Design the sequence.
């Protein structure tokens, strides 16, 4: 039977996979460790030290990391379906 595609699409509207800055699907996502918000790498300006979404202060050198494997894999699957 497989998974209902319409159901998956519904889940993809979840904000978790959208960048709060550009409102698009995350591109080269990076996660702010302090508040766990995720943005496109390009949407986080160099030297920024507070989250664009919730204003949590963070250290750009230590608190920004690539997202977990689950998010990377899910994003890759979404892109496959959209492309
Ligand atoms: Zn973005
Ligand atoms: Zn945040």
Sequence:
């Amino acid at each position: 039977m497989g998974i209902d595609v319409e159901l998956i699409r519904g889940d993809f509207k979840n904000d978790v996979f959208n960048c709060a800055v550009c409102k698009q699907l995350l591109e080269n996502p990076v996660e702010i460790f302090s508040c766990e918000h995720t943005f496109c790498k390009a949407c986080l300006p160099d030297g920024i030290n507070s989250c664009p979404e919730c204003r949590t202060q963070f250290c750009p050198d230590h608190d920004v990391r690539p997202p977990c494997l689950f998010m990377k894999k899910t994003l890759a699957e979404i892109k496959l379906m959209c492309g």
Summary: The pocket of zinc ion (ligand 1) is lined by residues 19, 21-22, 24, 39-40, 43 (CB under 6 Å). Residues 23 and 69 are 22 Å apart (CA to CA). The two ends are 23 Å apart (CA to CA).
